[in-house]
Amino acid sequence: MPIGSPGSPAPSASGNQQSSYRGALAVVTTLFFMWGFLTCLNDILVPHLKSIFELNYRQVMLIQFAFFGAYFLFSIPSAKVIDWIGYQRSMVVGLLAMGLGAFLFVPAAAVPSYPLFLMALIVLAAGITCLQVAANPYVTVLGPSETASSRLNLTQAFNSLGTFLAPFFGGVLILSAAPKTIAEIRALPAGALQAYRLHEAATVKLPYVGLGIALVLLAIVIGSFKLPKIEQAQHHLGEKINDSLWKHPNLIFGAIAIFVYVGAEVSIGSFLVNYFSQPEIGGLTEKAAANLVAFYWGGAMVGRFIGSGVLQKMKTGRLLGICAICAAALVAASMLATGHLAMWTMILVGLFNSIMFPSIFTLGVAELGPLTGDGSGIMIMAIVGGAIIPLTQGAIADRIGIHHAFFLPVICYIYILFFALSGSKPNSQRRARR
Question: Does 235 fall in a domain?
Fold first, then answer.
């Protein structure tokens, strides 16, 4: 079904079609879980590689820059792949690329080489980009337009389940040993230093090989499953459409909102282990801090399950605005506090992040019809905010300290409030106001 105006009636579906939609939704939901899991593992790689390669905050944020920068590079090509081979085959291509990226962690760890780790992350993220460009709009059009936001929040809840479990997984398999301090590492002789790096880098091999095998198997399952085709929401190559993406302000404002939202969410998640390790905040070990990071992402999971139900009764823009205000207030409170108050106010931000991405995405692609796939490419490309904003915050943290560098996410949430109240209105509502 094309995504129409909020008040437009959805075409009726037969019982068999509704059953087909539910089955397809269940299958596609597994994809959301996998890319959430893999994305959140970056929050464990950040402190791990920071210790191994003696990196400062700006240098270690190149992990997120490489990963989320791939969204900028590969989103538009992914949209063209959808036009060429369709939604389902694009999902398979994305999964296989993700599997390749996971396997590339083995040679990166064997050297070990920080640039090779970044290259593996770029390949992994390229696959996730293709998956997101295909799966997000597919879920929004897989049923009535009135429940598109609720439906995407539900699938994104399983994405958050992956982000919730990943820190526990990474904490056990990657951060199992107590890391040496920078001073201890620099005191090691050259031979011992290389042996230390080889040993610590090798801890990523088993997790990522296992994930690579799981991704290839999932690609086979998705490729063999008969997913329903949604022709009305697909733009075929060579087909002329009397419309333009740039005629939809909600898409443009929505892309900026995705940029700042992902940037804020990733910035917070990336710094939590180091933030909770600060003596004035928690003074925790990296492994203990990694377990607390799971509660940040777990809050997003709980919030999306709740949000899926609330959005059946409340307008998406209104709920998005409320969450933006709460998230900004909590980050500001953490900056002004210390100890457990600073820790738990930051963790609670995850709860209010919960409905933001699916709600912004749904509002951004509203009324695009056959341009939905291309619009999705623009929206997913804006995830590059997860590369730029954390890197910027890392540079700020090197100058003023990690505690007060979180003012940047506060600014991001203020923009999301604008989008929720004004920028998200589709053309039908803008014309009705004239």
Answer: no
Does an H or E element contain 412, and which? helix 407-418
pLDDT tens-digit series, residues 225-270: 887 776 554 555 555 666 778 888 999 999 999 999 999 998 998 8
Are 323 and 352 spatial neighbours (Cβ–Cβ below 8 Å)? yes
Helices of type H across 142-236? 148-173, 182-186, 190-201, 205-224
**pLDDT at position 289, please?**
86
Please name the residue that has the structure tokens 């399950």.
Answer: 305
CATH number at residue 255: 1.20.1250.20
Give the per-residue pLDDT at 22.
Answer: 78
pLDDT of residue 238: 55
Residue 118 near residue 357, CB atoms below 8 Å: no
CA–CA separation, 57 and 50 (whole Å): 8
Answer whether residue 275 is part of any domain: yes
> Does any domain span residue 380?
yes
Digit-coded pLDDT (tens) for 7-63: 333 344 445 556 567 778 888 888 999 988 988 888 788 787 887 888 888 888 888
Residue stretches of the chain with pLDDT short of 70: 1-20, 145, 175-188, 190, 193, 230-242, 431-434
**Which residues fall within 8 angstroms of residue 211, CB to CB, at 6 or more apart?**
37, 38, 102
How much is the pLDDT for 95?
A: 95
What radius of gyration do the chain's Cα atoms show?
21
Neighbours of 359 (CB within 10 A): 31
Residues in Cβ contact with 388 at an 8 Å cutoff, skipping those fewer than 6 apart: 65, 68, 259, 263
| Separation of alpha carbons 14 and 26, rounded Å | 18
Question: Encoding tokens for residue 240?
Answer: 């002329």
Instruction: Round to whole Å and give the CA distance between 391 and 368.
Output: 33
Q: How many residues does the chain have?
A: 434
The boundaries of the domain holding residue 179 are: 15-228+243-432
Cα 294 from Cα 127, distance rounded (Å): 24
Cα gap 250→430, rounded to integer Å: 10
Tell me if 267 sits within 8 A of 40, measured CB to CB. Answer: no
Residues 6+ apart with CB under 8 A from 96: 127, 215, 216, 219
Q: Residue 405: inside a domain, yes or no? A: yes
